[in-house]
Specification:
- This protein has 404 residues and is mainly beta.
- 12% of the residues lie in helices and 35% in strands.
- Strands 1-2-3-4-5-6-7-8-9-10-11-12-13 form a 13-stranded antiparallel β-sheet.
- Helix 2 crosses helix 3.
């Protein structure tokens, strides 16, 4: 067992390409048609106008300054469908009680990052804005002071596993487009590709996706495409149906891997062993303002469909919201299969309750149960998969049932 850790953690979040902004954009808004040029319009008029436009770097710097000072321009209040957002982001990582596997159905995409604001103000900006494609990211680094020593001896504490050190946790780059889930009368689509480099790849790695960096080579830093999926959204079905296909973040949990989505720099001990991502398909149906249902199939926890050990895995979740959005219960059977020992083949069940006290205070409470069967004893190293956990079995047992 690692030594008891008395750690004081300091994190610095340097937003390179994205920071939370109050500039709102209605996803359904489309720019008006361009006026046709008249005979009196000379091409050089446009050229002279473009030369007077601030350069890209100037627009980007001004966008950051406006964002940090809180003076960024705002548009009209965006439309939303259903209960009002119970919280605000910032300072919290989300406005609506979170659930995975889908954009928040009924919520508009209100983020306008400094980079996109700078691009929208330049040549071709109207076309970029109309596409609703966004590019953003961040750099997240931190250090800790600990009574432990040597590499990774802060474990099982996460994510600051290397004691008494400064670490580059995350360098991320997002490219995404969110479907318009406010409307209920037509089909829309979206996608996301999330690139992550840093120490935190050790927790997000999925077997079969650049996993030799960790499983074979145990690299300190590595790259992981944490999310790579498409969203297909039908607004005409009930109050909205979204189907996500690809690699996505595991559905339940208060905590999250990506820095702006997480409440704290460190993570709970149970989250260290939890599922991080799944590769498959998940459907999310908003039945009405109270009920939401989810059903999915994947290759298992943190494993690609083509990797050895992948097996068909069921996900089933239901969410009930009441008290005008102030309370939410989210029950989720995140991974159901035979439960036999494999690469993070956890059978996991969750129940989360969110409650809003006031605009400044809320509580999030989660109960969960996880287990695997036929897990090799930690002393039976020959039977253990690389980077997969063993169990503390009773004396004389090579394998055993391992609950959490």
């Amino acid at each position: 067992m690692p030594k008891t850790i008395l750690s004081f953690v300091v994190t610095t979040l340097l937003i390179l390409l994205s920071s939370s902004s109050t500039l709102a954009e209605s996803p359904s808004a489309q720019p008006g048609p361009e006026k046709a040029p008249t005979q009196s319009t000379r091409p050089e008029t446009t050229d002279r106008a473009d030369t007077k436009r601030p350069g890209f770097l100037s627009r980007l710097l001004n966008a950051y300054l406006d964002d940090w000072k809180g003076t960024a321009p705002t548009e009209s209040e965006p439309k939303y469908r259903g209960f009002s957002p119970p919280e605000s982001s910032p300072p919290f990582p989300w406005e609506y009680w979170p659930y995975g596997g889908s954009p928040t159905i009924g919520a508009p995409d209100t983020t306008e990052t400094p980079l996109m604001h700078a691009l929208h103000g330049g040549p071709g900006g109207d076309a970029i804005k109309a596409s609703r494609v966004k590019v953003y990211g961040w750099v997240n680094a931190g250090f800790n002071v600990s009574s432990s020593h040597d590499d990774f001896n802060n474990a099982p504490a996460a994510y600051y596993v290397i004691p008494n050190s400064f670490q580059l946790d995350q360098v991320t780059l997002y490219i995404d487009r969110k479907p318009d889930t406010v409307q209920t009368d037509h089909f829309d689509w979206g996608f996301r590709l999330t690139n992550l480099y840093g120490l935190d790849y050790r927790f997000t790695t999925s077997k079969g996706i650049f996993s030799n960096q960790l499983i074979r080579d145990n690299q300190k830093y590595g790259y992981d495409p944490v999310m790579a999926y498409v969203d297909l959204y039908w607004g005409q079905v009930a109050q909205g149906l979204n189907v996500r296909i690809g690699r996505y973040i595991s559905l339940p949990d208060i905590e999250a891997q990506l820095a702006p989505d997480n409440l704290t720099y460190s993570h709970s001990l149970t989250y260290t062993f939890d599922a991080y991502t799944q590769t498959g398909i998940v459907a999310t149906l908003k039945w009405n303002d109270h009920w939401l249902f989810q059903l999915g199939f994947s290759a298992g926890n943190d494993i690609a469909p083509w990797a050895s050990g992948a097996k068909p895995t069921l996900t089933a979740c239901a969410s009930y919201t009441w008290n005008s959005g102030g309370d939410n219960l989210y029950a989720c059977a995140n991974s159901i299969n035979d439960g036999n020992y494999g690469y993070n083949n956890l059978q996991a069940y969750y129940l989360t309750w969110y409650h809003k006290f006031s605009p400044s205070w809320f509580i999030a409470t989660e109960a969960w149960y996880m287990y695997e069967t036929n897990v090799p004893d930690v002393g039976n190293s020959a039977a253990l998969e690389p980077n997969a956990n063993g169990a503390f079995c009773d004396p004389g047992q090579d394998k055993c049932f391992a609950p959490e």
